[in-house]
Amino acid sequence: MKHFLNTQDWSRTELDAVLADAARFKREKIGDALKGKSIALVFFNPSMRTRTSFELGAFQLGGHAVVLAPGKDAWPIEFDLGTVMDGDTEEHIAEVAQVLSRYVDLIGVRAFPKFVDWASDREDKVLKGFAKYATVPVINMETITHPCQELAHALALQEHFGTTDLRGKKYVLTWTYHPKALNTAVANSALTIATRMGMDVTLLCPTADYLLDERYMGWAAQNVAENGGSLQVSHDIDSAYAGADVVYAKSWGALPFFGNWEPEKPIRDQYKHFIVDERKMALTNNGVFSHCLPLRRNIKATDAVMDAPYCIAVNEAENRLHVQKAVMAALANQ
Amino acid sequence: MKHFLNTQDWSRTELDAVLADAARFKREKIGDALKGKSIALVFFNPSMRTRTSFELGAFQLGGHAVVLAPGKDAWPIEFDLGTVMDGDTEEHIAEVAQVLSRYVDLIGVRAFPKFVDWASDREDKVLKGFAKYATVPVINMETITHPCQELAHALALQEHFGTTDLRGKKYVLTWTYHPKALNTAVANSALTIATRMGMDVTLLCPTADYLLDERYMGWAAQNVAENGGSLQVSHDIDSAYAGADVVYAKSWGALPFFGNWEPEKPIRDQYKHFIVDERKMALTNNGVFSHCLPLRRNIKATDAVMDAPYCIAVNEAENRLHVQKAVMAALANQ
Amino acid sequence: MKHFLNTQDWSRTELDAVLADAARFKREKIGDALKGKSIALVFFNPSMRTRTSFELGAFQLGGHAVVLAPGKDAWPIEFDLGTVMDGDTEEHIAEVAQVLSRYVDLIGVRAFPKFVDWASDREDKVLKGFAKYATVPVINMETITHPCQELAHALALQEHFGTTDLRGKKYVLTWTYHPKALNTAVANSALTIATRMGMDVTLLCPTADYLLDERYMGWAAQNVAENGGSLQVSHDIDSAYAGADVVYAKSWGALPFFGNWEPEKPIRDQYKHFIVDERKMALTNNGVFSHCLPLRRNIKATDAVMDAPYCIAVNEAENRLHVQKAVMAALANQ
């Protein structure tokens, strides 16, 4: 039984098939690929696009999504094995995942890091706990990666360039400032999918402290080796933007300061000029700009960039619906 | 593309058609006017009737409602233009409304005033923000007016009197006490629809401080000019109730004290006797009583009034379902 | 019009028919017994299994469930009659139940005790308030009893033993430790249904302080008189487990300390050894173990017991879906 925990677990052929299905679901909204089936959407963190797109995707294919928020309107869950559960958690993932699997055909999980200890958060314990105990396929709705966003992003780029072959495009993943130290999930994912698609990828960030976890740097290197393209790291804004076909922005906290954000704050504050603006976009090869949303305007990107015709963030967000329908349909009918 | 932000934006012919559709939906519960379609219900404030009736209305017509609560289980939203978003808000209404419009066919919005500055609240910024950026029709689920309640109320009165023509009826909108300074939305709406229907309307309130905003007093005057009927303001309970065919109750905070409620409290506390009771109802012309609910019993109206046969508040609440189905069907198929 | 407030209100014939329907719904998941119909699920307390199973049950039978959480995303509700509602509650159960009844075909209610005054909590005011004012059938989704769990439990036992006739089985309901003083609902229910099914029931608990409320002890006695079997109370672990066919565990607070839990805590702390473990299970007649979930592992039962083949807690949880479909179908089509 296949889960959808990361794009890296799926072959390029499988990913291409899902993207093709997504394009088809975009043309034909209503179908019966999930008729009478159901998905539990388990949210440990808030969501707008993810919830709406999964819930509607299920509906449009004849299925039903149940939205659960453990610790809020459901019980808090224990993920460690062998624990004497005398603390706050009321039930173990073993029971949660097994019982949900009896009710539904698919389980989606959103679980952000706790931002205390990266060594622990990078284990993706919540998602893996569901995948371990569930007897139905599990979908990553964003944990320390965001594979559904990857597919939506890839589809938006394929639509923009009018081809499924993205090789030869210069792709810049740029760090941007944000008042809070954010999750690296979407950055990890952008690096993963951009290299998977064989693009020439530049990771632009202020300093080496802002490099991504070695797992994802490693996936990217492996993808370059297998799919062509290239990967380079840059700390120079202008040369990174020069000639870019795609600019993708994301803010994240520096991993060496993970869980100890006070000293990172003054460092991060020095790099507010990484904001995506018209001057930088003018350096590109008539490039497109995108972002996973939510985006703080005039912090990560200016109003002018967000409102420009070359901003395809809303297209990408729309594609969440279509790619998730494709993923759900593929998993529920495997 | 037509929104449903206020009844005043719709022609009398259009409103009459919606009320006729609502009566039909009341007779035939199940249909396919929204087959495969969807609505996002965006709640910035709590709801029981509104959520239930919209969600069920969509279901009964073959559609699906997604319920979102920004700032609770979705991201907090920025409504001002040009803001450097370094505060609490995580995304701008421009993106929220555009993205939702890609997912759904209709957007409903509930956003009560913030009760700090009426000059700001009266701009109805949240609703107008959605209407500005959305590319699908937007429905007001109560902001500073409550047009769905207006239609439900009008339909309940048409049912009670056995005619769609309400002209010649004496209609009393009475202020009542409530421990908190409440929203004027339903009062604004009652004044608007009662005058629109050509009734002889009396606005009964303790003092001139409790008059409604000039925008709604103006709409009422305009409606009288166009639809016949009359409008008067009274501070005398007994003469206002005398001969009334309809008594509609609502509590609201006095606008001159908006955002500065401390000094208003002792004033408001003097008028607890505005409660709707059997003695007052006995002064009417065998009149009906209604209220938008929720209602605090023995504060706004006595148990005896609420449980009397002339109380049609539950009928009115039921009609929310029917009128909203008519509004959704009209907007989704325009 | 019949409600489903307690199994004790239903005849044995009716219960047997519901269990037979549930077994049928388990074989044939999709149906139209609730086509176009709806249920409001009113949660005053959190839920995972209950919400998911009711929501999916409605969907799989062509209906729709609306989930409401009063005081959280709906208005707080007043349950007392004649109250001057100048406190926190915004509307009276009379209006809530009447209005919901206009919208939906069924109402489910979850309302745990407030844990302050058992004399008050044992009146089950919230559930009874809904049943009093609603004009549609009301279903108990757990208050001070949990009749849906009873049916799921009974069905799991019938499946395990391969017969609908459970007479002659030795059934042990064992109290277990838990860091908090919990609701007696499931214990009351287990005692009720086990005696109703004519089993030989032992209530195992640390001391007489942990006996259940006399109402449920009385129901059990009445059930024994009518259905055969037996009922005994034991404070001795080994003799209670000896030869048992079924071990059902639940923790609850001692009623004599209700609302005054401080002095009960050190007493309860002495009985952590009531945990269900392999040594105790080895005393049984190759017995099965079950629990209503959520369960704190290594507090109420050990990992080894939870992961053993004789643990049927997940089967029981699954059956919630099937029995609730049977209850909803029976009530909506009466």
UniProtKB/TrEMBL annotation, chains A, B, C:
Site (Key residue in conferring substrate specificity for N-acetyl-L-ornithine versus N-succinyl-L-ornithine): 90
Enzyme class: transferase
Cell location: Cytoplasm
UniProt-annotated binding residues for carbamoyl phosphate: 47-50, 75, 110, 146-149, 292-293, 320
Catalytic activity: N(2)-acetyl-L-ornithine + carbamoyl phosphate = N(2)-acetyl-L-citrulline + phosphate + H(+)
Domain Aspartate/ornithine carbamoyltransferase Asp/Orn-binding: from-to ranges: 184-330
Signal peptide limits: none
EC number in record: 2.1.3.9
Binding site for N(2)-acetyl-L-ornithine: 142, 250, 293
Pfam families hit by this protein: OTCace, OTCace_N
Alphabetical UniProt keywords: Amino-acid biosynthesis, Arginine biosynthesis, Cytoplasm, Transferase
Location (main, coarse): cytoplasm
Pathway connected to this protein: Amino-acid biosynthesis; L-arginine biosynthesis
Modified residues (N6-carboxylysine): 300
Family label: Belongs to the aspartate/ornithine carbamoyltransferase superfamily. AOTCase family.
NCBIfam families listed in its UniProt record: PRK04523.1
Protein name as catalogued: N-acetylornithine carbamoyltransferase
UniProt source species: Lysobacter hankyongensis
Gene name of the record: argF'
